[in-house]
Structures are given as C-alpha cells and as structure tokens.
Specification:
The chain has six helices and two strands, in the order ααααββαα. The protein is mainly alpha-helical. It starts with 8 loop residues before the first helix and ends with a helix.
C-alpha cells in the first residue's frame, strides 16, 4: 500500500478504511478456522467450547469465574460450555485445594494430547502458507501486529472503543 503522507488526511483515512476491511476479513476467516480446529480436536466440539478449552489447557486449571471474565461471558454461558466440554471428556471438575468450596476446571489428558497434536498441525500449515515470506517481512509483520493489538488493548481499557 505504500507510505502515507502525514499531511494527507484523506490518504490516511483510506488506509484506515482498508485496515478495518482487512481486519474484518481476518475475523471472518478466524471464525471459520475456529470451527475447523474445533472439529479436529473432537468431531462434536463447537467453536466456543474450543476457545474455552484452549484457555483451560493453557492455564492448567481455572475457575469458571476466570473463564467468564476472560471472555466476557455470563455464568449461564460458561456453565453450558463447561458442561459440553465435560460431556466430551475434555475437561474435568476438581476441588480447589485452596478453597474446597470452589471448583477448578482442568483439561483431561486426552484433551491435552488432542490440543498438542493440533498445535503441530497448525504450525505446519502456517509454515506452508507463509513459506514465501522472508524472515525480515515475517518478523516485521509480527512486530506490527503486536503494536496493533497493544493499541487496541489500550483503547479497550479506556472504554472508548466503538
């Protein structure tokens, strides 16, 4: 797309419009990819449950309230999602050793193995699809994407994002 003249507000607006469009494409593609990944983990796994399972596997064990806070879900949605994961034998409920009244959600060994396998599949596909990118371009993209995500995080925290 090239550099934008800082004095050319119309040019910058066009670039920002293109950014919004490309992020929209990325989000639609990500939704489709999540559905595919979910079925690779388990044929009956739905995308929302896949995302929650990823968090549980990443953290080892979590409380349902942590899941709710992380994804901005209500208790009912978390409860249904967790039950789905339990029914598929991907998550188990355990007593919290620090507070016996509380319950922790933990991945089953099968879930961890399925998710590890998926990481290898994802990484191989990513290497294949980005094989034509040189190391410098890839590193610059990763750096800029990180900057973009940080900027969005700051906007979210200020409560002004629309």
């Amino acid at each position: 797309m090239g550099d934008v003249d800082p004095d050319d507000q119309a040019g910058r607006d066009r670039v920002l419009e293109t950014l919004e469009r490309e992020v929209g494409v990325l989000m639609r593609r990500a939704r489709r990819v999540m559905a595919v990944r979910a079925t690779l983990v388990h044929p009956e796994l739905v995308p929302t449950s896949y995302i929650v399972l990823g968090l549980i596997c990443e953290r080892g064990s979590v409380r349902a309230s942590e899941v709710a806070g992380c994804f901005d879900l209500d208790k009912g949605a978390v409860s249904r999602t967790v039950q789905h994961l339990v029914d598929l034998d991907l998550v188990e409920r355990r007593s919290d050793p620090d507070d016996r009244r509380a319950t922790l959600l933990a991945p089953t060994p099968d879930a961890l193995e399925r998710m590890r396998h998926l990481v290898h599949v994802r990484r191989a596909r990513l290497k294949e699809r980005l094989g034509g990118w040189d190391d410098e371009s890839l590193a610059a993209f990763v750096r800029d994407l990180g900057r973009y995500n940080l900027a969005l995080e700051e906007i979210e925290e200020s409560g002004t994002d629309a």
